[in-house]
């Protein structure tokens, strides 16, 4: 647990040693070697030294003394969007944050009644049953209406999945067509636990819904690693959000920047995603696709597109917490259950959501909220 706690803070062993020495005073004998021995289990950390350790990491002692049995089997197969471009230290921190989020939610939600309206299927994809086929089947089995969906996060939460926003990595420019960044999100389906998705806080709404649908694709299709899993999840997300049968008619006329911007407001995905979709469906030639891609790049749309989309917000976990608070539970009590300090619990789970879409709206990205002039 000491390693997990340290990595969740993005710290090295030497960083922890320096923080402990600063708290302990000039005569402190804490060193990097001490931290290494403590993490390896060769040295027991108890009493005042344990309190010091907890203060340096800004976690309660209760978290640091959790046994492996209490922590559980770990997150298992973790899906990233997108792992290849992320630095190893970032991935270690993200994995630690994911694992600690599991622990927090287990403490918070244990015994809490939750409504599950949709059954999460498990589908195997191959050369004959693609990610797009899986998306069509899921939409049909769940009875989702044709055309643009409402809240994608709401759909995930309806399956019993848990969604949180966390600071994973700093957003970077859009990758033309594939909408890839170092890590837009991370998800895991640990056996015996609810699926969990962490969305990168601060990722533009331009790619927010596509990212959530991408992680849903992983939940449906990838209980085991697959060499094509990122491509398959992108196929799933594209068809889930922009069904070919429905969106083709929107590409029937001239597909230009104005068209893409207007469709962005309608479908709740980025102009890049729409451009890629039109090309994949054969509604744009290779030349037309390249021409528009060059034009969008020259206008700076890789870093910032026109037409702001409000990110959807998770509501399932917050709803349970609000219920607890309404029943008279104190924030300090809930923080103890989550094994967090009250201030951090408040930041992570009770943050102000007033400026963002709630995720409960039937139309989370209305056209009136999008600037459609170029």
UniProtKB/TrEMBL annotation:
<comment type="similarity">
    <text>Belongs to the short-chain fatty acyl-CoA assimilation regulator (ScfR) family.</text>
</comment>
<dbReference type="GO" id="GO:0003677">
    <property type="term" value="F:DNA binding"/>
</dbReference>
<feature type="domain" description="HTH cro/C1-type">
    <location>
        <begin position="2"/>
        <end position="64"/>
    </location>
</feature>
<feature type="region of interest" description="Disordered">
    <location>
        <begin position="355"/>
        <end position="374"/>
    </location>
</feature>
<dbReference type="Pfam" id="PF06114">
    <property type="entry name" value="Peptidase_M78"/>
</dbReference>
<dbReference type="InterPro" id="IPR001387">
    <property type="entry name" value="Cro/C1-type_HTH"/>
</dbReference>
<dbReference type="InterPro" id="IPR010359">
    <property type="entry name" value="IrrE_HExxH"/>
</dbReference>
<dbReference type="InterPro" id="IPR010982">
    <property type="entry name" value="Lambda_DNA-bd_dom_sf"/>
</dbReference>
<dbReference type="Pfam" id="PF01381">
    <property type="entry name" value="HTH_3"/>
</dbReference>
<dbReference type="InterPro" id="IPR052345">
    <property type="entry name" value="Rad_response_metalloprotease"/>
</dbReference>
<protein>
    <submittedName>
        <fullName>Helix-turn-helix protein</fullName>
    </submittedName>
</protein>
């Amino acid at each position: 647990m000491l390693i997990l706690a340290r990595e969740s803070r993005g710290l090295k062993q030497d960083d922890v040693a320096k923080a402990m020495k600063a708290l302990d005073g000039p005569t402190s004998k804490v060193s990097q070697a001490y931290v290494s021995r403590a993490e390896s289990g060769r040295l027991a950390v108890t009493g005042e030294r344990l309190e010091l350790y907890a203060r340096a990491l800004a976690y309660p002692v209760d978290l640091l003394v959790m046994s492996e049995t209490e922590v559980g089997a770990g997150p298992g197969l973790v899906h990233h969007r997108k792992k290849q471009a992320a630095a190893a230290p970032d991935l270690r921190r993200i994995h630690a944050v994911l694992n600690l989020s599991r622990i927090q939610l287990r403490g918070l939600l244990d015994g809490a009644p939750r409504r599950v309206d949709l059954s999460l299927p498990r589908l195997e994809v191959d050369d004959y049953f693609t990610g797009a086929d899986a998306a069509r089947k899921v939409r049909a089995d769940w009875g989702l209406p044709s055309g643009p969906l409402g809240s994608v996060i709401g759909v995930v939460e309806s399956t019993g999945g848990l969604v949180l926003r966390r600071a994973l990595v700093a957003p970077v420019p859009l990758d033309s067509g594939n909408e890839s960044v170092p890590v837009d999100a991370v998800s895991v389906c640990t056996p015996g636990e609810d699926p969990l998705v962490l969305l990168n806080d601060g990722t533009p709404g331009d790619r927010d819904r596509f990212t959530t649908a991408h992680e849903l694709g992983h939940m449906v299709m990838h209980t085991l690693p697959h060499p094509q899993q990122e491509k398959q999840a992108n196929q799933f997300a594209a068809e889930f959000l922009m069904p070919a049968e429905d969106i083709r008619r929107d590409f029937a006329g001239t597909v230009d920047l104005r068209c893409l911007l207007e469709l962005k407001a309608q479908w709740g995905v980025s102009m890049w995603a729409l451009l890629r979709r039109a090309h994949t469906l054969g509604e744009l030639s290779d030349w037309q696709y390249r021409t528009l891609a060059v034009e969008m790049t020259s206008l700076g749309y890789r870093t910032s597109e026109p037409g702001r989309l409000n990110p959807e917000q998770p509501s399932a976990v917050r709803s349970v917490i609000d219920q607890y608070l309404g029943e008279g539970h104190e924030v300090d009590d809930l923080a103890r259950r989550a094994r967090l300090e009250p201030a951090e619990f408040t930041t992570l789970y009770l943050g102000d959501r007033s400026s963002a879409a709630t995720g409960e709206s039937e139309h989370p990205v209305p056209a009136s909220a999008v600037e459609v002039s170029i």
